[in-house]
Amino acid sequence: MFSVAIDGPAGAGKSTIAKKAAEELGYIYVDTGALYRSVGLACLRKGTDPADKDGVVAVTKEISVQLKYVDGQQRVLLSGEDVSDDIRKEEVSMAASLVSKIPEVRAFLLDLQRKLAVTNNIIMDGRDIGTVVLPDADVKIFLTASAESRAKRRTIQLREKGEEADEQAILRDIIQRDYQDTHRETAPLKAADDAELIDTTEMTLTESEKAVVDCIRKGIERK
Ligand code: DC
Question: 0.85 cut: is pTM over it?
């Protein structure tokens, strides 16, 4: 099996680019953020503060999180319910970032992620894929962009969907999530030593996709 780990901060375009690359290469795309988002959503639904460690750990004991693929598209099931759309809400992003600090939550989701790589050619995106989940991945990419350009892209994306977007609030949110994700003790966001760094601040989406696919193809040739 061939595995590609793509890590990087929120809003760097990981999911859009990884999804496209997976389609092009015929690989399965695994969005691991969806797993943390599901735990965050479960907490919000149960009225548990996502920052309350004991409360969150208790929630993980009452739920199951699974991934399934429908026509090649990932769907995430929270205790059997398809929550793929609900987990995209802005309040769930912050809850996911908070619950992801908790080592028990990370342990709860680790096996599921590793098992997927055993039986599939995959492109997996997240924060700790190249460092913790798949340290032996065949290709590791750290995809990043300045916080300002990530906030701008997110604002445009939301407005295109007809949703209201306050760019300054989005930028504050991104900076806060970056801080939380890079400063946590367990599996913080950081580039693996052997990761290829791709900074998309000055790139278009098409250029970023090409840079990622080129990097993966080189890895395939190497193997
Ligand atoms: O990629 P995303 O924005 O959907 O991720 C939501 C949160 O989940 C993110 O702020 C940090 C956490 N996360 C993580 O800790 N490890 C991963 N592999 C993926 C996401």
Answer: yes
